[in-house]
Amino acid sequence: MATAVIKNNFYNVSSIVLKPSTAIPTTVAMCSNFCPRISNRLPGPPISSFPTQPRLCVSANAFSSQATNATSKEELPSRIGFLGIGIMGSPMAQNLIKSGCDVTVWNRTKSKCDPLISLGAKYKSSPEEVAASCDVTFAVLAGPESAVDVACGKYGAANGLRPGKGYVDVSTVDGVTSKLISKHIKATGALFLEAPVSGSKKPAEDGQLIFLTAGDKPLYETVAPLLDIMGKSRFYLGDVGNGAAMKLVVNMIMGSMMASFSEGLILSEKVGLDPNVLVEVISQGAISAPMFSTKGPSMVQATYPTAFPLKHQQKDLRLALGLAESVSQPTPIAAAANELYKVAKSHGLNDQDFSAVIEALKTKLQSSEN
Prior knowledge:
Layout: E1 6-7, E2 12-13, E3 16-18, E4 56-58, E5 79-83, H1 89-98, E6 102-106, H2 114-118, E7 122-123, H3 127-133, E8 136-139, H4 144-152, E9 166-169, H5 175-186, E10 191-194, E11 197-198, H6 201-206, E12 209-215, H7 217-230, E13 231-236, H8 242-270, H9 275-283, H10 290-300, H11 310-326, H12 332-346, H13 358-369
Parallel strand pairs: 5-6, 5-8, 6-7, 8-9, 9-10, 12-13
Antiparallel strand pairs: 1-2, 3-4, 10-12, 11-12
Helix pairs in contact: 4-5, 8-10, 8-11, 8-12, 9-10, 11-12, 12-13
Protein name: Glyoxylate/succinic semialdehyde reductase 2, chloroplastic
Family: Belongs to the HIBADH-related family. NP60 subfamily.
Keywords: NAD, NADP, Oxidoreductase, Stress response
């Protein structure tokens, strides 16, 4: 039950919002829209509303929950920019459009924007133009290099920002990169929020992402209704860099789990067991995880429909190892997993789902038997 403040010397989780399906105390009242009234909106002229859906709102700061009034129409950003229309960005932007938001999109390959344009999205030819025409701009890029280029490059979003606007970077990057982007954005007078997500393609499609945010609190409060459309929960973690760090730790654990799971599937088959039964046994025990039950059957069939590309998982492991090195924290299990993903990349599995890492183990077994 999310009613406690979680603190240690690195993170400060100060809020979490859950969708109605989550069990919460009966003292929590249904919000009349889907988020608390936003008292600290972005500076600038009033901005209009769009259709919303009911949410349950839980404040973890005060160890209690309380009913809140609906967000007023003047307090919601009316023009939303979206940069990066890929595996994650496309369904996220689509959910905003379907909720009635006025969305303007950009992508290096324009054809990827066409399905969203057909749903009513506008299109601009550069990140700068998108940021200039929108109140809040979201960016979902593949990695640190592209995130910096789209935000700070020659035709980057920073060139179109000014006081009264906001920039929300959903990309998975390291803390140093996030702080660099924040510096450029805030130099324009705009507000900045990092908001990497936990979740892959299907959660993005279903609006079930988990947002790990940090940065300007007023911008967090302003975009909360938008995060609630795209996700099932959101955490505010304080200073810029904390959201990036949390995402890297989560993905480090995920990548290591998948590597171990792959070893187990291969070992079970090697000793004459049915790996499908192993998946079922795991799903009913203490180590049950949605990732195992979702990806296990297709892994047994050696098919890897891409929900989270293997190259991105290896990138996140590399960044997580760098984070651990910066604080002198040993991470031997993650380091070993990273090597396995590197082997998988060397066999041309970059764009397969990260569960294809199991193929690296098969290759090693085959080579050792020949």
